Fold Cobalt-precorrin-5B C(1)-methyltransferase.
Amino acid sequence: MMERHKGRTLHKGYTTGSCATAAARIAALMILRQQIIEQISLTTSAGVTLFLSVEHPLIEGQQATAAICTDGGDDIDATHDMLIYARVSLNNSGVITIDGGEGIGRITRAGLGLYVGTAAIHKTSRQMIELAVREVIGSGRGADIVIFAPEGEKRACKTYNVHLGIEGGISIIGASDSVNPMSEESWKRALAIELETKRAQGLEQIILVPSNDEECLIAEHLTACGHHAVVMSNFVGYMLQECVRLGFRHVVLVGYAGKLVKIAAGIFHTHSHVADCGREVLIANLALLGAPFELLYAVEQCATTEAAIDLINKRGWQNVFELIAKKICQRIDEMLRFSHNRPVCDAILFSLDNPMLGANRPVNDILADFSRRFPADVTA
């Protein structure tokens, strides 16, 4: 996939999760057809069709193996140009299982949204893989799927996985089907276009989420507001400025606390390469609430912000998330203080397991404002 930016052609790749999904689908198809497949088309959620070459296809009765080569596009990382394999074995159980084999890391610490000891295959990727195979084999059959990457352990040495508690290989991730090219400006512009579309539909209120992953949170907890959601990625400040430009009157930030806590420290570009301070923000606000030093030290020792959040919940200091949500809104107000028509801002924080952690004010009041403050906004 290609796109242009400032006269330069940018190449858009696809995620390891998409590679694993395509490989698993091919393997299942080969079993049912008892025929080698050397190319497959994969339509992404953005409606783009990829034509992917199949590497090392093998069929052995009710088991088949296939591989897809990763492509990081212009956003090349440690997993670029490596083979992701899927081995599928059909059975009559009606159940689909997914595990990791050679070169796929294992979770060794809590806080990553997966159980300790399981393969480092992100829950979104697991859903993608299961859906792709289920569409092929139907509801009556079952399948045991193993994702593996022979180069994975070596490649993982070039990643941050071991510091996160993922050992023995790479992780399979993919909240979306494709890897966006490196041009931040073109990416930001694409996000702003979605805001413009919502505003053209007559909406005056908007929900900003870091990624498509948070859509499930809105569906579960903010059911009447799903059509208000727009992805902001890491570009919090930019998207807020666009909200002002377009005349939105109410903005709600919804997402996993591990990402949004950075805003409470005045950080409006939340990529870890720009700022990686989630635990520090938690520690500072816990200290303001009088938390004991032992807890502050334990949070500092956590491998990830999500692990720290889990620890805080277990120790009963959940009120820190309400404080952080309020500070997020204060920081936004400060950033937009020279605006003549500054929007009302709210923040709702969640954990990776979906429970709501806290908000700057009662969530029922926030939801009521969506139906009361601007009535025309709801029926648009």
Remarks:
- The CA atoms of residues 235 and 269 lie 5 Å apart.
